[in-house]
Every structure is written in structure tokens, then in C-alpha cells.
Amino acid sequence: MLSSARVAALFPESGIRNTLIQNGVLIPDSDGALRVRFVGVAVAGGRSFQILPKIFPCSSTNRAFTMRQVIRALRRYADWRSRRRDEAPFLDPTASQTNLNALALADWLIRDYLNFGIYRRLREREDINGPGQITWRRTVERMVPVVSSGRPVYLDSVTRSATRDLDYFVSRLHRHIVESAAQGFGHLLGYDTVNLDHEPFEPLGDLPILALCQARIRQEMRGAFSDRAMQLLPMLLAWLTAIARAEDAKLALYGTSSFYDIWEKACALALGNERDQWQAHIPRPTWNSLEGYTQDADTFAPDIVTRIKDGAEEHLLIADAKYYRLTMPPNLRGQPSVNDVAKQLWYQRCLAKVAQDRGLARTYNIFVVPGPEHKDGFWSDGHVDLAGLPETTVKVKRLSALQALKNFADGAALDAERVRAVVMTA
């Protein structure tokens, strides 16, 4: 929570403060204070900020490593959203819903360079008896043959070869843009130093006027049809516009105001998830009119439904991933609401019989909440009881937040035996 005075000190320009509020980075509270809802990187008013998730204490001694894992998790989440064609405004370099995505473009351009290098244009040249392949059509057109035994013999031939055009403007512009992105934002996005001194393309020095750069890129786009060109060239064009907007607004963002969604994805990867195979068995409310019409409406969806193996048996696990800072009794704070508890018990009520019919022995029900660094990574931390249903207990399990984000970025699940052992204990 930031007081008005603290916000004014961090962001002295009212325009930047208002933009942060409009974009959900800062949320006004009822008493006039502002709450930071954003996780990621912000460059505002000439200053840069790395904003950790609330689940990490301010006293953390490994902030740099933690922030690097957060950035890696954001990057994987952005890729996941992109594959679903679901725009994440401050993580998507092609976002249409915001003008503040220069950092996302910087991230894309740095990654692209590290994977594929500088954009290259080959210059084709013709020589007489030079290196390269003989071009017989051009040889016949240009060379005078010697007739031998009634047949033409070409003593000289036209050859064609291709060399890199080291002075090509778009290649040099690409180098300039990557250097600018890496020097300005690379450290904030978790990259080591990106050095382009080995590149054979001459640096541009000062960037030419915007209109010239845009015109040369558009000219290249009209004649380049490789997959690389069709992906990279629009990004170069977008960068020129985005960086100009960021300088005008004095603001750029890389991150999300919905980090709870990343926590849910991290938990689903850690435990496994086959929710879609079970969702049809969650009842939907049916509305009935006096005229006799009926219509089903949308229903709840559990975060995680998966199977756990226990020797020859299998069990069903229903889990709710909670991005909460839960403290258990005797100082209960930050707990899921009674609605959350009742919903989990209702899920169990709906799915237990289906699981039994499918040959699963038991059904387990848990909350998964963030925990500190821990040698086991996943462990038990009590339970919550709510009377009134045949099922009355939801167990509380801790998942190391740092390890969960690192594993999510790496695409790695928890050890299945560890999951089984923790889920089946009190």
C-alpha cells in the first residue's frame, strides 16, 4: 500500500500517475491510498521499477534471482496467451489494446536476435569465370562461343554468387534497434549483457529520421517473403512507433495486473490438470420460466482436477490454486472465503461418484497456496472444516512460490511421488 505522498514522490508527474491508474497498475483504495496491483517491470518518468508478486516478502535476500524467475514466468505466460490468440496487453508485442508495450517489443527483439542473429540481405552478383554457379542462360546470352566439330564451346562462362550486403540499411537498422532495446531494457528483462561488437554490419550511429526508417522497412517488406522477414520486419516497424510513444508518455510496462492467473497456471503445471475431462459433470443451473421455458446457464469450473497414482490404485485430486498470503491459526489471516471452501466441497460432492465409477479409489480436495523456499517444495499446512455437506474438509498445501515459478518457466511438473505423499497425508 502506498500513501498519496509516497506515490507523488515516486511519480511526480500527475499524467503518469493517472496513466498508471487507468491501466490498472495502481488501484485507489477507499481511504485515498493506492495499492500496487501490477507485477513486472515499469519504466516511468525516467525511473525503472521491478515489482515482485505480493507472495514474496520485502525482506527477501535473493531479489535479483526472484525477479528473474518472475520475468521468465511472465514470458512463458505471454507465449501461452499468444498460442490461444488471447491478448495480454503489457506482455504482447503486437498488442492492440495499449500503447505502453515497448518493453514487450524489446523482449521479443532481444530473444529473436539471440536465436537468429541480425537480419541479412544477400547481394547477388554476376562475374565472368568467377566463384559460384554457372548460369547457362546468361552465358548463352552474353558470351560468344567457339565452334568446334560443329558444336558451340564456351571458353568463358557467366557465374552467379551471393554475398552478405554488409552495408544494407535494414540490417544496420536492425542492429541499432537491438542494441537500443538491450541497453535500455535488457537488464530489466533478465538478460545478461547483449554485445553486438562482433557483428560485421556497421553501426548506424545516430538513428536517421523516423519517416526514413519506416519507409525503408516498408520497402523491404514488399520484397521479402521469408518466414523470418515476415515476422521480424513488422516488429522493427512497431518498435519505432512504440519507443516514440513510450518517450512521449514517459511510460512503458511489462507484466500483468492478473498475476493470480499465472499462479493458477503454475499450480496446474506442477500437479497436472485434466479438468476438461471432468467439467461436464459439474452441474449447471437450470432456469425455468412461468411459461415453461428452461435454459441452462454457466457454472463454476474447478482450477485443477487430476489423477494421482498410488501403487496399483488411482485417486482423484481436486485443487484450488489460491494466490493468497495465508497465515494459519493462531493468527488466521488472508484465508479463502467461506464461499471458496463451500465451492470446493461442492466440487467433491459432484465428482466423487463419477471418479468411483471410473475406477478411482478416493477423492482428495486441497487448497494450494504459496509458501516460502522449502527443501521439499510442496508440503502440508493444516486443513479447513465446514459442516453441512457429506464432505467437510479441504486440506491446505503449500507450494514453494519461487520453485513453482521457476518450474513453470521451465515447463517442469512436480515429482509425482512427492505429490502423492503430500496429498495423502494430513
Give an account of the 3D structure.
The protein is α+β, with helices and mostly antiparallel strands and 426 residues long. It has helices at residues 4-10, 14-22, 63-83, 102-116, 136-142, 169-186, 210-223, 227-249, 259-271, 338-357, 401-410, 416-423; strands spanning 26-28, 34-36, 39-44, 47-51, 122-128, 133-134, 146-148, 151-153, 158-164, 251-256, 286-288, 294-296, 304-310, 313-321, 363-371, 378-385, 393-400. The protein has a five-stranded mixed β-sheet with strand order 13-14-15-17-16, sandwiched between helices. A three-stranded antiparallel β-sheet has the order 4-3-10. Strands 5-9-6 form a three-stranded antiparallel β-sheet. Helix 7 packs antiparallel against helix 8.
The count of helical stretches stands at 12
Order of helices and strands: HHEEEEHHEEHEEEHHHEHEEEEHEEEHH
Total beta strand runs: 17
Oligomer: single chain
Described by the principal axes of the CA atoms, the overall outline is extended
User: How can the largest sheet be summarized?
Assistant: 5 strands, mixed
Amino-to-carboxy terminus distance: 36 Å
Helix content percent band: 25-40%
Low-confidence stretches: none
- What is the SS-derived class? alpha+beta
User: Mean pLDDT score, rounded?
Assistant: 88
Name the strands of the widest sheet in spatial order: 13-14-15-17-16
Q: What amount of the residues lies in strands?
A: 15-25%
